[in-house]
Request: fold
Amino acid sequence: MEAFFLAGPSGRGFCLLHEPAPGGEVQGAILYLHPFAEEMNKSRRMAGLQARALARTGWFVLQVDLHGCGDSDGDFADATWERWISDAHHAADWLRRRSGFAPALWGLRAGCLLAVAVAPWLEWPADLVFWQPVSSGKQHLQQFLRLHLAGALLGAKDDAAQPAGDGTRGLREQLDGGDAIEIAGYSLSPGLALGLDAARLAPPAGSARLFWLEVCAGETVELSPVARLAIQTWEAAGWRVSAAAIAGASFWQTVEIEDLPGLIEATTELLGRVA
Amino acid sequence: MDAQRETLKILDEVLNLGGRSGGMSAASPLLGAIPELDSMAVIAILATLEERFGFAIEDDEVDGSVFATVGSLAAFLAGKLDGFGFSAAP
Reply:
C-alpha cells in the first residue's frame, strides 16, 4: 500500500493506493468514495479491509479523502459538493492512467450519491459498487440537521442548549440564506449542504454494471423495500444489477467499530465473478 | 406490508433488544418504559424508517405521542406508508 498526496484542482488530496500483488492476474481498478461527516471516520476500518481484500484478488484500489476531509487539504467548512465531484473525477482519471484500467466507482452511503454525480463526467461507462447507498441527498441532509435537535424533537426539557422552536427548517433557512451552520462539530457550508440536498441516486446515462450491497440486522436478511424499488428503476434504465443483503450491524454509525467480514467476502466475490 | 411487524423489527435492530421485541404487542409502552429509547435512539429510528422506506419525516410530524406505544409508532408508519405507495396493514 502506498500513501501519498495527489495534487488536484482544489489542493492536495490524501490517497491510499492498494496494488495487486506482482505476478498475479489483474482484474481492474476501483475508486473508493467515502461517506459524509462522522460516517467517514466510523467506516475507515471497513473500507481499508475491503481495499486490501480486493488488492489481494487482483484489483487496483484507490481511496481518496475528499477536500476538507481526513488528511486532505482544506477545512470541512470550505468543502462544496462541486469540489468533491471534481476531486473524485480527478482521482478516477489518475487511477486510470496509473492502472491502465477504466476504474469502477465504489461508494459507501453518501459516497454512492457522489459516485452517481461523478459518473457522467468520466470518459468511460463506470461500473458502480454501492454499499448501503443513501437514496436521497435531501433525506441525508435532513438526518444530519436533526442531530442538532435530538432533545428538542421530543420536547425534552433536560437540554437547555437546544435552540427553541426553530427546528431543522430554521437551519435550512440559514443555509438557503447563504450562511454556514455548525452541526455535531462540523461547519457545513451552503455549497456542500445544498449540493448534497439536490443529489439523487438516479441511474446516470451510459448503463454499465451495478453491484448493490446492503447490511441488515435482525432475523430476516433481505434487501430493504426502498432498495427493491430502486433496483427496478436501474434495471429499467439498462443497468445490469447484482444485489445482496448481508447480516450485520451498521458499521458506519455504530458506537463500537464493527467488522463485517461477510460484506467484504460478498463484495470481493461479486466483483471477481464478472471481472 | 405489516406495519407492526416492521415496527418491531426496527425497534429490535436500532435498540439492540436482542429479540425482546418478540414479546411486545400494540399496547406495549415505549417512551419511558424502554431505557434504551433515549433521544438519540429516537433520531436513529426516524432515520431507519426514512432509509428503509424512502419517505421523509418532517419535524412537526413527530412528537412524544408517536413513541408512546408500539401501536402508536406502527400507526404512524402505516400512515406514512399509505401516503407513499406501499400498501400497509396497520
